[in-house]
Amino acid sequence: MCYPFLPGCNGTEPADIVFIVDASGSVGAVNFNKMLEFVNKMVDGFPIGPTETHIGMLTFDSKVYNQFHLNKFNTKAAIKNAVTNTQ
After folding, report:
1. Which tens digit of pLDDT belongs to each residue from 31-64?
2. Structural element, H or E, at residue 25
3. For residue 74, is pLDDT > 80?
4. Rounded distance, CA 6 to CA 17, Å?
5. In what order do the strands lie in the sheet with 54-60?
6. In whole angstroms, what separates CA 12 from the centre of its chain?
7. DSSP 3-state assignment of 44?
8. Which residues neighbour 25 within 8 Å (Cβ) at sequence distance 6 or greater?
9. Which residues pair with 56 in a beta bridge?
10. Which of 8-17, 29-38, 74-83 has the lowest mean pLDDT?
């Protein structure tokens, strides 16, 4: 495995990453939107594509809601749009 912080290593390995976001009422709308912004900033840090990093997202309150599966989107723009439009 190649870690970007090691000398001589300048890439990242493909990964499957699922963000789990608290959408309960105690979080509030402002903090929920901050979490979505955080997810979008994290997405910016990964190469996204069919053979690269895959992103999925769940939200939860008293139940779990699958927002999108790992194989749903293949571009950063599509992922970030889905994250931004999460209710």
Report:
1. 999 999 999 999 999 999 999 999 999 999 999 9
2. none
3. yes
4. 22
5. 16-22, 54-60, 64-68
6. 16
7. helix
8. 61
9. 18
10. 8-17
Q: Which class for 36: exposed (0-12), middle (13-18), buried (19 or more C-beta within 10 A)?
A: buried
Pairing of strands 16-22, 64-68: unpaired
Tokens of 2: 């190649």
Rounded CA gap, 29 and 53, in Å?
A: 29
Mean pLDDT of 63-82: 97
Distances (CA, A) of 74 to 24, 28, 80, 82: 29, 30, 11, 12
Contact call for residues 67 and 59 (beta carbons, < 8 A): yes
The answer to whether 79 and 37 are in contact (CB under 8 A) is: no
Structure tokens at 80: 């970030």
Note whether 86 and 57 are within 8 A (CB): yes
